[in-house]
Amino acid sequence: MSVLICGDTISTPELRHEVPLAVPDAFTYAELDGRRLVAITSMEAPRVEALGAGLEVHALEEFGADELRRSGIEAHLYPGALAARIASGLGIGAATVPEGFPLGIADALRAAGVELTVDQKLFDDRRRVKSGHELAGIRRAQRATEAAVAEVRDLLARAEPRDGVLTLDDEPLTCELLKVRAQAVFLRHGAFSDEPTVSHGPQTAVGHDAGSGVIAAADVVLVDLFPKDLESACFADMTRTFVVGSVPGEIREWHGLCRQALELAISRVRPGAHGGEIHREVSELFAERGFPTQLTKQPGEVLHDGFYHGLGHGVGLNVHEAPSLGMLGQELVPGDVVAIEPGLYRRGVGGVRLEDLVLVTDDGCEVLTDFPYDLEIGE
Q1: What is the b/e burial string over 330-348, where b = at least 16 CB atoms within 10 angstroms of the residue's CB?
Q2: pLDDT at position 378, please?
Q3: Is residue 365 a contact partner of residue 267, using CB atoms and an 8 Å limit?
Q4: Domain termination site, one of 128, 163, 198
Q5: Do 195 and 277 sit in the same domain of this protein?
Q6: Domain containing 52 — which CATH number?
Q7: According to the model, what pLDDT value does residue 150 have?
Q8: What is the enclosing helix (H) or strand (E) of 137?
Q9: Angle, to 10 degrees, between the axis of helix 275-288 and the axis of helix 249-268?
Q10: Biggest alpha carbon distance in the chain?
Q11: Does 218 share its domain with 341?
Q12: Positions in the chain short of pLDDT 50
């Protein structure tokens, strides 16, 4: 059966994996009898050809695009009608598609007699083994992440307590300012982030609270950054937790346990290891210390404290992708890049999370993150 993907390479990771180029307008990619074909506008065709990626490039005019445009067809019907002509021209009678395949185009293809089968696992599996281009992009994004976390850490180190809050250059220090400074570092490294997380105080107990407001003098600060490398569209992901000044004993305990859990998890990463089993081992470590986990809670119970999320996830053209290291884990394969992020939280108080990026190799793993785990910033 053929493979068929329709979309742009900005929002369709399955397509970006096959055509490693930023193309903002939708086009068609197909695999048929060992051929890898692209049907695209004449404006974009030279860029795709220049990739030298073994792609057979066809301009839309070959499939009657001009006739369709001159026919008076309504604009919203044009993409589906063109897709049907492309499928007919390429001789595609049946194809496997990802689950995000555009429904309108699917309806038009099926109406034209093309049989479509959704198989997301097929597309996830081929993306899990990173190409050299993608892996280089992940490494660049990781270096950008480390530089940005260092910037946040250094700004926190420069801050001074005054009237119960942190101040920097005589102004209250805010999460917003730290995120702006992190974003500037990303841009200098050829990366960008839609929603970096720099949260403080009780916000740090809420998993993906992006953080806002003035940072108090005794606050915990959680920095979770996941920029995208602009050249490859691949992400990195990393979290560190900081305290300016004296560290509360409870926070120090949580940080030590998260560090222990991270080391345990990384030691288990290798081909054939199951993400669900690694998650179970970390959950047991936390449960033995009295913390609630997904594995120890009652069915239907909603956790707000303890270790209430999965241990990690794949990272690549999406910041969250296969494989899973959680309750529904998956077996690891060489080429996987996974973020491992144990955390402990208490609602209304705060939380601690540490996260490293790890590449699964043929005989073990390589930790891509190179950044210290220090909790304290000054005294």
Answers
A1: bebebbbbbbbbbbbbbee
A2: 66
A3: no
A4: 128
A5: yes
A6: 3.40.350.10
A7: 98
A8: helix 132-158
A9: 150
A10: 74
A11: yes
A12: none
Q: How far apart are CA 325 and CA 311, in angstroms?
A: 5
User: Which residue intervals of 269-374 are DSSP H helices?
Assistant: 275-288
Measured CA to CA, the distance from residue 292 to residue 310 in angstroms comes to: 13
Specify whether the CB–CB gap between 227 and 145 falls below 8 A: yes
User: Residue 47's pLDDT is what?
Assistant: 96
Q: Are residues 151 and 280 in the same domain?
A: yes
Total number of residues shown for the chain: 379
Count of domains in the chain?
A: 2
Task: Give me the pLDDT at residue 64, please.
Answer: 94
- Residue owning tokens 């409870």: 250
> In this structure, what token pair is assigned to residue 175?
């999460």
Q: Half-sphere exposure (CA, 13 Å, Cβ side) for 203?
A: 22
The boundaries of the domain holding residue 253 are: 132-377
- Give the pLDDT confidence score for residue 246 in this predicted structure: 87
Other C-beta atoms closer than 10 Å to the C-beta of 11 total: 11
- Burial letters for 92-110: b for 16+ Cβ neighbours within 10 Å, e otherwise? beebbbbebbbeebbebbe
